[in-house]
Write a structure and sequence with these properties.
- The chain is an alpha+beta fold.
- Helices cover 30% and strands 29% of the residues.
- The chain has four domains: 7-100, Rossmann fold (3-Layer(aba) Sandwich); 130-189, ATP-grasp fold, A domain (Dna Ligase, domain 1, 2-Layer Sandwich), CATH 3.30.1490; 195-317, 2-Layer Sandwich (D-amino Acid Aminotransferase, Chain A, domain 1); 321-401, D-amino Acid Aminotransferase, Chain A, domain 1, CATH 3.30.470.
- A hairpin with a 7-residue loop joins strand 10 and strand 11.
- The structure holds adenosine-5'-diphosphate (ADP) and magnesium ion.
- Adenosine-5'-diphosphate binds next to strand 6 and strand 13.
Length: 412
């Protein structure tokens, strides 16, 4: 079949892909999607054409790669866009093969593997934790003993799943038993300092525009993200450090075109990278970036994917935005309080709670277990702080303490 120079092929739609469909429509593109067969019914009405995939979200990259390749062989689109971790490789393989814009196969492979990131950064002068890659966690015990506390993590997960702070020798030995079947694992020194992410739109290896997000997490042991503040500000010296870091990482991973999401901590001796991904950040960050800069980042990503020109980058933020997440204590939900009051606040863009009375929540060791979120947009950083304080005060999930055994799979 001849190429369709007017078509965007989305690898996965789910919920996060919908703004890309809207942006593509505004640009006059037709949209075809490769979608998990299990979710096809939700998506069919939204796109012009649908290709089914046996893969699941967060599941096997290989199944998405197979489906993406078959789809592009059937009809070559103007561009291919993947926005979630397990689809990045599928998109990059077809982008490379068919000469379409994308992050590059190199950047996608490195994005999927934290150990490859660790191995790549030192040669580019990029700060990061000391680390040890191991097939048997117990074998890293002597290395860890000189560095406690350490962080143990898988190479290719997301949302803090499997990321664990290990404070001392007994805890390390327990982790080595508990995680004996898991391999490979990274063990890292625990670096200290406030956490940030850097979201950039990159065209042919050049940063078109970048945003800084400041993060609060639950801290040790699980580090689940609680609050993001978009368009965060630092001192001129720190801002220059972050710009240099972002450009160095883009160069180090061979990033060509698309979205980059970089996470780092600002330590006393400079930035230390947690991880980088060549995909859309989670936690509604692109929506918050769009509100903050008055530019639709989803549309910019679609433009990059199909090779359409970009406008002039924004000069400064027009709003100061934030996302706040609800993380209840483990137990049974008794009530959700203050949702309507929160929604009525002028700075609140959206507030959603995904739990109801009677639901059992078994603790929050990964971001998927959070119980709800609030997106805010204010005219100044100070007003944003006030709005966040009001939200924290008004909105709560009231719990009764857990008595029985933990129930897996509570909605979050
Ligand atoms: N070496 C480390 N030192 C300090 N904190 C860390 C370290 N590694 C991970 N963390 C914390 O855990 C969080 C999740 O780790 P990350 O490597 O980003 O995994 P994920 O892919 O699950 O997001 C980070 O955002 C950070 O808060
Ligand atoms: Mg992370």
């Amino acid at each position: 079949m001849p190429p369709d120079t007017n078509e965007l092929l989305l690898i996965g739609v789910g919920l996060m892909g919908r703004p890309y469909i809207e942006a593509a429509r505004r640009l006059g593109l037709s949209v075809r999607a490769v979608e998990a067969a299990s979710r096809a019914d939700e998506i069919r009405g939204l796109v012009d054409d649908l290709e089914l995939c046996e893969g699941e979200y967060g599941g096997l990259d290989e199944l998405w790669a197979e489906a993406a390749y078959a789809a592009v062989r059937r009809r070559r689109p103007a561009g291919v866009l993947a926005f979630t971790e397990s689809h990045v490789l599928a998109a990059a393989l077809v982008q490379e093969r068919f000469g379409l814009p994308g992050p590059s196969l190199e950047a996608a492979v490195i994005s999927r593997n934290k150990a490859l990131q660790r191995g790549r950064f030192p040669a580019h002068g990029i700060g990061q934790p000391d680390h040890r890659l191991t097939d048997v966690l117990a074998h890293a015990g002597a290395w860890a003993a000189e560095r406690f506390p350490v962080v143990v993590k898988p190479l290719s997960s997301a949302g803090s799943a499997g990321v664990e702070l290990v404070p001392d020798g007994p805890a390390f030995r327990a982790a080595a038993v508990r995680r004996a079947a898991e391999r490979p694992l990274l063990v890292e020194s625990c670096v200290d300092g406030p956490e940030y992410s850097w979201e950039a739109l990159v065209q042919d290896g050049r940063v078109w525009f970048a945003n800084l997000t400041a993060k609060d997490t639950t801290g040790p042991p699980d580090f689940v993200e609680v609050t993001h503040r978009v368009a965060a500000r630092l001192s001129p010296q720190r801002t220059a450090q972050v710009d240099t870091l972002g450009r160095a990482v883009v160069g180090a991973i061979g990033m060509r075109t698309g979205v980059v999401h970089l996470e780092f901590r600002l330590t006393a001796s400079g930035p230390a990278v947690m991880e980088v991904a060549v995909r859309t950040p989670g936690d509604h960050l692109l929506e918050l970036c769009s509100l903050a800069y008055g530019v639709d980042w989803f549309e910019m990503a679609v433009r990059l994917a199909v090779g359409l020109p970009l406008p002039h980058p924004p000069r400064h933020p027009v709003r100061y935005t934030a996302a706040h997440f609800l993380i209840p204590e483990p137990g049974t939900v008794v009530a959700v309080e203050g949702l309507e009051e929160t929604r009525a606040q002028p700075a609140v863009v959206r507030a959603e709670v995904g739990v109801a009375p009677g639901d059992v929540i078994g603790g929050t060791s990964s971001s998927a277990q959070r119980a709800g979120y609030v997106l805010l947009a204010a005219d100044s950083p100070e007003e944003r702080e006030e709005a966040l304080a009001q939200v924290r005060k008004a909105l709560s999930v009231v719990m009764s303490p857990r008595t029985g055994p933990r129930v897996e799979g509570a909605p979050g």
